[in-house]
Amino acid sequence: MKELLRTTDPTIIAFAKALLEGEDIDCFEMDVNMSILEGGIGIMPRRLMVLQRDLFTARSVMRDNEIEVTVDR
């Protein structure tokens, strides 16, 4: 799996997941439990992961909806 986006804003994660589901792209949210442990103050980012084969399409969907994606390092 590849990281599509990383954010501390849970509304962006929810919106991105809904967009990806609409395109039949499977995604997985990581670090949910870490953000719960920090008490909900929003300092620990959550990551949204997609399969390698869906990464190009998922990035296009995010860009079309003005959601900033993670760039490969």
Largest sheet: 3 strands, antiparallel
What is the CATH first-level class name?
Alpha Beta
DSSP helix count? 3
CA distance, first residue to last residue: 15 Å
- Let me know the average pLDDT: 88
Quaternary organisation: single chain
Structural class: alpha+beta
Tell me the total number of β-strands.
3
* Gross geometry: globular
User: In sequence order, what are the helices and strands, one letter per element?
Assistant: EHEHEH
Question: What Rg, in angstroms, do the CA atoms define?
Answer: 12 Å
Helix % is 25-40%
Q: Please give the order of strands in the largest beta sheet.
A: 1-3-2
CATH architecture: 2-Layer Sandwich
| CATH topology descriptor | Alpha-Beta Plaits
Strand fraction: 15-25%
Spans where pLDDT lies below 50 across 5 or more residues: none
Task: Kindly describe this structure.
40% of the residues lie in helices and 21% in strands. Strands 1-3-2 form a three-stranded antiparallel sheet. It has helices at residues 10-22, 32-37, 55-64; strands at residues 2-7, 27-30, 46-50. It has a single domain (2-64), classed as UreE, C-terminal domain (Alpha-Beta Plaits, 2-Layer Sandwich), CATH 3.30.70.790.
Compact summary:
Helices cover 40% and strands 21% of the residues. It has helices at residues 10-22, 32-37, 55-64; strands at residues 2-7, 27-30, 46-50.
Write the layout of secondary structure elements.
Elements: E1 2-7, H1 10-22, E2 27-30, H2 32-37, E3 46-50, H3 55-64
Antiparallel strand pairs: 1-3, 2-3
